[in-house]
Amino acid sequence: MSPGRLETFADGVFAIAATLLILNVDTQVGEHVDDLGETLLEIWPSYIGYVVSFVTIGIIWINHHTVMAQIGKVDRLFLLLNIGLLLCVAFIPFPTRLVTEHFRSDGARAAALVYGVTATAAAIFFSAIWFYASVGARLLRDDHDPRIVKGITRSYLPGPWIYLAATLVAFVSPTVSIVLFGAIAVFYVLESSWFGRSRQKG
Amino acid sequence: MSPGRLETFADGVFAIAATLLILNVDTQVGEHVDDLGETLLEIWPSYIGYVVSFVTIGIIWINHHTVMAQIGKVDRLFLLLNIGLLLCVAFIPFPTRLVTEHFRSDGARAAALVYGVTATAAAIFFSAIWFYASVGARLLRDDHDPRIVKGITRSYLPGPWIYLAATLVAFVSPTVSIVLFGAIAVFYVLESSWFGRSRQKG
Amino acid sequence: MSPGRLETFADGVFAIAATLLILNVDTQVGEHVDDLGETLLEIWPSYIGYVVSFVTIGIIWINHHTVMAQIGKVDRLFLLLNIGLLLCVAFIPFPTRLVTEHFRSDGARAAALVYGVTATAAAIFFSAIWFYASVGARLLRDDHDPRIVKGITRSYLPGPWIYLAATLVAFVSPTVSIVLFGAIAVFYVLESSWFGRSRQKG
Amino acid sequence: MSPGRLETFADGVFAIAATLLILNVDTQVGEHVDDLGETLLEIWPSYIGYVVSFVTIGIIWINHHTVMAQIGKVDRLFLLLNIGLLLCVAFIPFPTRLVTEHFRSDGARAAALVYGVTATAAAIFFSAIWFYASVGARLLRDDHDPRIVKGITRSYLPGPWIYLAATLVAFVSPTVSIVLFGAIAVFYVLESSWFGRSRQKG
Q1: CA distance B25 to B5
Q2: Smallest CA–CA separation between D36 and chain C, in Å?
Q3: How far is CA B133 from CA B81, B123, B137, B152, C200, in A?
Q4: Three-class SS state of D10
Q5: How many CB contacts within 8 angstroms connect chain C with chain D?
Q6: How do residues C148-182 score in pLDDT, each as one tens digit?
Q7: D136 DSSP assignment
Q8: Cβ of B33 and A107 within 8 Å?
């Protein structure tokens, strides 16, 4: 089996999950509103939720891209692990809506927990994909770069723990937990654009 | 004609049908809920429905992948049979919602039947695709592996009958029928990850 | 420019437009229904609309596939004509819902007209794509098969007229017009599977 | 990293964002309408909004195509800039609905501003993508055509300023601003089909 078709399917799910996020913003504005300008300002959490989740899905896509560049063949268990990851990614629009609608109300804790569990599960599947493929170079390309493989292993190791920690914070303070999810996305963007570049040069 | 473009279209439908499943979960939580945490616990059937149908579509995608790897050319009847399969796959989100919303009410039987008929029709089209392509090696690659071809034939033969049986059970007990649909998905996951691997080694 | 990326974009639109058709069926069943079985039988027009429009989009996809197999390069006007075609294809879910909801009421004529105008516009763009590419072999592959090119020209010439005629019938009888749209889809399926095969052999 | 997978993901987002536009038209017609024909005539702004935004997304896709044809490699910052562009493109269905629903009411100014800010942001990301890739030929193919590169630079330079100007007009007259957004799309179509062809010949 060739990895190409997995990429087509995965990219489809990434693209659709990201694009469906706009429906969360759209439903915030009913057909009949008194003052459209005011309503559009009031729903600012929707915009932040849209950007954070879109960028989060985008980062997962970039990382998937990085992993697949080292993969030479796939087997059925590898495909199943990918379906697990995509199942979590396609779930993201739902907790995104919960968080943006409820973060100022009593429902903030429940919303933050659902978002956090989804992100943690995605990170666990992502790590599982990588370790299943890379341990013993099981599915790696014959000409894979050991230095890049080691770099990926080092940078993906903390992922599930970071998201788990941010999720557990929700039991103390949902607001801090939600801010952390945004901060993690910002961190990954900076890390991708800055450290990522220096790593490629190094 | 080359098989590549069929795969792009098929992967698109698989990816969208799977990703749209989240809308079934999303609509279970209205904009104004008293206790978000409780509501999120009450809608647990939605989560199971989401996972079962996502994995089912994923398994069909993996199997389609396995079949296409043996295909060397396509003709118009083969494309039409694939459109029939995709028509059934894209239908899955609808009976998934019916089952998760009605399995505890009088509508359980009707919901289970629609789910079962959809799955059975998908399995019939899948078998038709394979037998049309493989009988007399009509559309197979010149370098196809006869052992793999025989293995696919053997493992796809029971598919429609299994789903038909689970569907007919709904006349006696809708609940058992619905549990069977979940069990079939679990079985295919285990079969894919475990037996699938040993088959590749064997 | 290479034709490959046009195919990725086009296949995406075909796949999404076809898969979104399920939303038309889904919205016919509210969350709280008294007798689910009865409701599911009452909405039979939705199923027919789903199948006819899914197959129609599938046939357009197959024909697009056939055309692109003869194309060697693309230019910007060719891409724009394709965007015009895709704009019509992505519109199809809307008139499909109108027809299935209104064909037994006063709105049947308006619904049939919108469906017909959409289908006719799609057929016109399809013809424009082919004639722009094939006249003087402007965009054809250097090794195109003149017999296949002539065959495509002959079989696509009547498309817009057939749909225009079926559309105009709606002024006399919307019901006949709607039946004709279904019949055209059935005809194309038969033509694809039967004549299509003999043409490939001939 | 190869540019191919960026194209698959980007084409997915372009295709889905364009296809989702039909939902804006669809929601304008409720399930129970007295006079379907009249309703379908009354919602004419929806059709124009659908066509303008579909074509706008199509033009961005064509231009992305043109840029990628000159790209030989991608890095993570380039991927992030593309995610920024796609984030804006996937946002377009929302302001499209706002403009078509509110352009005859008090909300016209707010709607025009959201549409304009989205289009301007997309144009800024598009320029950033190109300048990041082309300055010093950072990511260009080794065999890129300097004349085409110079042509792209010249034709994309004014994009953000044109959309910014049309957006600012909304403070004086929302109607003129909205008409300008339509006119820009028409201009790009004409420019693509006519000047585009002569540029390719020249």
Answers
A1: 32
A2: 5
A3: 10, 15, 6, 12, 16
A4: helix
A5: 103
A6: 899 889 888 888 999 999 999 999 999 999 999 99
A7: G
A8: yes
Nearest CA in chain C to B105: C36
Place of tokens 């037998």: B131
Name the residue facing B87 among C16, C36, C54 (closest C-beta). C54
Report the half-sphere exposure of D80 (CA within 13 A, side-chain side).
Answer: 18
Scanning the structure block, which residue is given the tokens 């994995």? Answer: B55
Residue positions counted in chain C: 202
Mutation site for D-interface testing, chosen from C85, C94, C106, C132 by largest number of D Cβ within 10 Å: C94
How far does CA C31 lie from the centroid of its chain?
A: 32
Alpha carbon distance, N-terminus to C-terminus of chain D? 33
> What are B21's two structure tokens?
């499943």
Other Cβ atoms closer than 10 A to B132: 15
Q: Which stretches of chain B drop beneath a pLDDT of 50?
A: 198-202
Interface partners of chain A (CB pairs < 8 Å, 3 or more) are B, D
Phi, psi for C10 (deg, rounded to 5): -60, -45
**Three-state SS at A140:** strand
Q: Are C193 and B80 in contact (CB under 8 A)?
A: yes
Average pLDDT, rounded, for chain C = 90
User: What is the tens place of the pLDDT at every residue in D76-87?
Assistant: 899 999 999 999
For residue C85, the surrounding DSSP H or E stretch is: helix C76-91
ipTM, interface predicted TM-score of the complex: 0.91
* Token code pair at residue C9: 């974009």
| Residue B125, SS3 per DSSP | helix
Give the amino acid at A193.
S
D93's enclosing H/E stretch is helix D93-102
Nearest-CA distance A96 → chain B (Å): 11
For B120, residues 6+ apart whose C-beta sits below 8 A from its C-beta are B160, B163, B164, B167
Question: From CA B8, how far away is CA B13, in angstroms rounded?
Answer: 9
Distance CA B176, CA B179 (A): 5
Check if the beta carbon of residue D97 is closer than 8 Å to that of residue D169: no
Residue that has been written with the tokens 């268990």 in this structure: A77
